[in-house]
Amino acid sequence: ELLVARAITQETQPLPIQILGTDLRAFLTTKLFRAAGERMLLCKITRSDHEMAPAKDRDGLNILESMVETVPEAMLFCNAAGELICANDCFLDLVGAAHVLEVKGLRLSEFLQRGSIEAKILLDPSRHEKRIGTYHTTIKTRMGELTSVQISLVRINQHQEMTFGILIKPVVQLERVTTS
Question: Residues 132-165: pLDDT tens digits?
Fold first, then answer.
């Protein structure tokens, strides 16, 4: 009943929970919706990696997580090998994925029309430059549909590991903004 009440009031703060038998903490968010005329409660559990991070990095983690969740365009982070670390809902919608677990660990090249060639074009210069300008390409969904996009990429050095922040805007969305 508590979870249903939280969903009805649209409580935005995640509920902290303890994983039984461990010292791990997680967060629970709820959403109430109707499907086929039936009321359903969707519960999302996210692990708290903040406890494992050094204290000086916690603020940075909070800022990055907040940015990924709130930015209105598709946004993702990948490691130096091009493997996706995290992505927001806009990216999931763009590629036709239902959950971040479907894309986490996959290579960026799997979503680019020209695959590894294009991933190399994007990631290699960024190893030397802090950021690249914009790059126009085509993203393919999990079902093979194609969408023209503009990609901006920035290199983030974190704990001796290279990470890339990537912002993806559909070109159709950009054309609407330009003409209005």
Answer: 678 899 999 888 899 999 999 888 765 567 788 8
DSSP assignment of the chain, as one string?
A: -HHHHHHHTT--SPEEEE-TTSS-EEEEEEEEEEETTEEEEEEEEEE--GGGS-HHHHHHHHHHHHHHHH-SSEEEEEETT-BEEEE-HHHHHHHT-SSGGGTTT-BGGGGBTTHHHHHHHHHHHHTTSSEEEEEEEEEE-TTS-EEEEEEEEEEEEETTEEEEEEEEEEHHHHHHHHH-
Of the CA atoms within 13 Å of residue 178, those in its CB half-sphere come to 6
Give the CA distances from residue 171 to residues 4, 25, 138, 156, in Å, rounded to whole numbers and listed in that order.
39, 40, 9, 25
Q: DSSP readout, 17-45?
A: EE-TTSS-EEEEEEEEEEETTEEEEEEEE
Nearest CA to 148 out of 123, 173, 129, 117 is that of 173
Report the alpha-carbon distance of residue 101 to residue 109 in Å, rounded.
Answer: 17
Alpha-carbon gap, residue 78 to 63, rounded angstroms: 17
Is pTM beyond 0.85 here? no
